Amino acid sequence: MAEQEGITIKKEDFSEWYTEVCNKAELADIRYNVKGFVVFRPWAVKTMNNMFKLLEDELESKGHSPALFQAVIHESNFKKEAEHVEGFLPEVFWVTKAGSGAEKLEEPLALRPTSETAMYKMYSIWVRSWRDLPLKIYQKCQVWRYEGKATRPFIRGREFYWIEAHDVFETEKEAMNQVKEDMETTENTIHKKFAIPFIFFQRPQHDKFAGAVNTYAADTILPDGKVLQLPSTHLLGQNFSKSFNIKFTDKEKKERYTWQTCYGPCVSRIFAAVIALHGDDKGLVLPPEIASLQIIIVPISKSKDDEIVKKAHDIYKKIKHKFSAMIDDRTEYTPGWKYNYWEMKGVPLRIEIGPRDLRNKQFMLVRRDTGEKIVVKENRIEEIEDVMKKIQENLIKKADEYFKENLREAKNFDDMKNTLEKKGGIVKIEWCGKKACAEDMKEKTSGGVIRGTMFGKEEKPKGMCVNCKTKATQVVYIAKQY
Amino acid sequence: MAEQEGITIKKEDFSEWYTEVCNKAELADIRYNVKGFVVFRPWAVKTMNNMFKLLEDELESKGHSPALFQAVIHESNFKKEAEHVEGFLPEVFWVTKAGSGAEKLEEPLALRPTSETAMYKMYSIWVRSWRDLPLKIYQKCQVWRYEGKATRPFIRGREFYWIEAHDVFETEKEAMNQVKEDMETTENTIHKKFAIPFIFFQRPQHDKFAGAVNTYAADTILPDGKVLQLPSTHLLGQNFSKSFNIKFTDKEKKERYTWQTCYGPCVSRIFAAVIALHGDDKGLVLPPEIASLQIIIVPISKSKDDEIVKKAHDIYKKIKHKFSAMIDDRTEYTPGWKYNYWEMKGVPLRIEIGPRDLRNKQFMLVRRDTGEKIVVKENRIEEIEDVMKKIQENLIKKADEYFKENLREAKNFDDMKNTLEKKGGIVKIEWCGKKACAEDMKEKTSGGVIRGTMFGKEEKPKGMCVNCKTKATQVVYIAKQY
After folding, report:
1. CATH number of this structure's domain B14-278, picked from the four choices 3.40.47.10, 3.40.309.10, 3.30.930.10, 3.40.50.410
2. Of A39, A72, A91, the CB nearest to B67
3. Alpha-carbon distance B43 to nearest alpha carbon in chain A (angstroms)
4. What tens digit of pLDDT does each residue of B421-460 get?
5. A-chain residues within 8 Å CB-CB of B32?
6. Cβ distance of A91 and B69 shorter than 8 Å
7. Would you tell me how many other CB atoms lie within 10 Å of the CB of residue A20?
8. What is the value of pTM for the model shown?
9. Other CB atoms within 10 Å distance of the CB of residue A463
């Protein structure tokens, strides 16, 4: 029998707990022999596939279509937008050779760190008239970044999986509306389905995406009080349409440059938030909406085909059209071993059937999120649906509460520094708006970074910058980050 | 109004017709400025996504799980299996530099041309005991090959999209059974759903996958008489388990090397067969089972909201749960323009509703595959389902008939050469089994390649090799290939 051991208590050492869950729930393996590259194992990929599907469906329902662009970008494309290349150059891997003699390629090819410069080359060919707009295309792909910081499965590595949606409009106003739509997409998927709460910030000018007019990004708070960036939307304005020459003829037959946005939910990274926020001391906890296996049925029996196992199959047949379910009828493991195993894997609901249940025409539900046990009569099987809804709601509620508890306010520098050090989370402050002051704060707080102003909510500063004590120009939020 | 022109007659110039369909149905764009790299546009990607889904569901139903391995392979892994590296080295792109100063990486990284050497590194860690077997993992990904021949969208390029399934077993027999299962997977998806007929061959020894014991591969015949390789399965035996040290402890506690297979349906390439085999002089024709849009509803009206358009919405509401459907109610285009547009896109079924249909409480179905028009009474809407089934069946039948017609037999060399030149297709011959003779035939027939023996059917030669006239040892099939 495969051995099972307990895991580190999450509250005591979140970092170690996270590593152990990634290993023991068989989510990722860092033992691949290329630095910074992590293997994603089936249990993680099945869940991420569901997350991708929900995001893709949401994007398609809002008028996006999928495409596939190349992974390699010609050096000349890559260097077209000056700020963009400056921002991304340090992170690019270059393909320089090929073939049996490893001949040098005529021009080096960049492995895409993001796809603006691959896609917009084609957009300049495809966009001709107002009839071609809006153009809303996304691709599901991986990107590569020559990341220097320590590798953490799903959180940080040199190859990660995301969706990037690149939209083109006639007017600035439409582009700005797209930012709002992207926030809605984030709410409908990442909050409602993945149960991850967030605030959508407008990042400070000094921290925007290379080549953007403005960057808007969702942040969540992990159990150690540090924030993790979820999807971001970049208002690109006409920066790229001018450097890539993306023009259209409007209804008045005038030629104009387009307005653009891009949106990038990094699914492998968002999965890190799912692990971190919902998991507990028994392992992973998956929200029903994204669990690849929603119900595990464990017959309490040593046989492969007694009355108890038959009952398990009866129940399975009745629920399989509504839920993804499976019977664990392996005889080489005890029921207790199986409980631990599927709890570690985060399956939302367990059904147990023992001799007494058989006699009483009932079965037992065990909720993964609360451990609650619920006896259900065989003729009331539809109750499962209600329980499943409650699990999803409870995970959202718990995560929301944790998030709210960790939104704080500080009136002065010491207060802010103390909060960041002792409690973590996101702290609301007033700030002068200057980059140098932000950098000074980051150093003095050992990593406190200004996340920006809250998007869609006007908050006016009333006093002085908490750090430099000059007149505050913005109400912003600061946090330590991953 | 966007202009529409006719396309080249498929029978007269298949190659030009193929290029035009790829352009006019907006499937691919070759104008990206990196040689050999083609952009896949939304209409192609939506269809390929359905093809991927069917293959993934079939693989999962047969016990495979999805994983994601890295795109880059350490040089030392890549070089572990001697034959494998020799076969693939000429096709590898190398990542050698990274970062802002484009510093040289400590060791060059291969962009995967196929993933054996990435995955088996991990398999050697994961496989410990018989309990871990069989291990059946697939990944959906792209691979890169430094291809020298001319680029053709979907048929040949330097980056293509596939699924690769890598399976590990205790015994040779189980591995051999996997080959049969893979053939079944190919039949259930590529034949029954994509409507592409094929023969599963065992390739000659001199033409097997680099590092395999045997290669089995499905071939179909394109309209120009040349064959296109569809999925292949490689029986790897213990070649890779020995070079990567993949061992397990069996039930008798003895340590043994595993037996392995891999299976690779290249979806972007199989999509080329879908375009080529089903398309006609009006453009693409998509089998209902893989069409992302199965029904286009065209109200014959100049208004956005008259009775006809309302009726179109009524019908849409009634069918949308069964089929993927859409109403084309754009007022800037005529019905005739729309018919051409959606025929070019290959939508299997069109519903037309005009004033007369409104009066007679009916609507018109137009089949894309045959052009047949069918009047359906409003209260008999369920007839659509039957028509859709017939379209799928008809496409399979037509493709099967074409395939059968192009299977021929030749008793001597001249007969074979003539058949390959004038008719194309696959020609059955008797052969001595020698590589030199096969190469000689290839030269003398300007490209006739021996595809191998028919898998699962024993055919015994009775005479002499058609080429060298020594005793024939195999009944094989020869064809010109893509």
Report:
1. 3.30.930.10
2. A39
3. 8
4. 999 999 999 999 999 999 999 999 999 999 999 998 999 9
5. 69-70, 118, 121-122
6. no
7. 18
8. 0.96
9. 11
